What we know:
Elements: H1 5-11, E1 20-23, E2 27-31, E3 47-51, H2 63-84, E4 88-92, E5 103-108, H3 132-145
Antiparallel strand pairs: 1-2, 2-3, 3-5, 4-5
Amino acid sequence: MEDCVVCAALRSPESSRDIWIHDDDLVLLAHVPPSGEAASDAYPGHLLLVPRRHVESPGALTSAEAERIGLWLSRGSGLLESTLGAPHVYLARLGDGWPHLHFHILPRYPGTPERYRGLEVRDWPGVTRCDRAAAAAIAEQLRRAL
């Protein structure tokens, strides 16, 4: 889809490869970047998993895409647990902001208070946010752990 932000990023990977963890013919797993080039507001270890083909619903996935997404939801979660020490990993499909199907994979770090569970884990002030370089370093660490 021409005006889809995800499809545009997949067509122009040179500006994003530093935060990509895995990509193949069906899916892309990447670290979520900060909101701008100079920003330092990314939640460390917040991953996105997207199908390469533009679809808007899990029900529109082919069997092969669904299998690959399931595999990388599992592998992404495992990487956050084993590499970043997350005792718990949240998986979410929201879909309100972008029309391209995507899944959030969010680590909960040790010591996270009860009130910062689920998607609110990103709001916990006890986790130092990261800039683009730090997000890229986390992506590299996760790539190496594959």
